[in-house]
Amino acid sequence: MSIPTIVVIGSLNTDLITRTIRFPNPGETLTASSFSTGSGGKGANQAVACARLSRSKPKPPSGSRPPACDTASSQATPGQTTTTTTASATFNATEPTTAAANVRMIGAVGSDKFGTRLKDGLESNGVHVDDIRVIEGETTGTAVIIVDESTGENRILITPGANSRVVPSSLPESLFTAPPLPSLVILQLEIPLPTVVHVITSAKRKGVPVLLNPAPAVELPGEVYAGLEHLVLNETEAQILAGMEKTLAVVERGGGGCGAGLRETCMHFHGLGVRNVILTLGGEGVYWSSSSTPSFSSTSSSSMPQEQQQQQQQQQHIPASRVDRVVDTTAAGDT
Question: Which amino acids are annotated catalytic?
Answer without folding.
Answer: 334
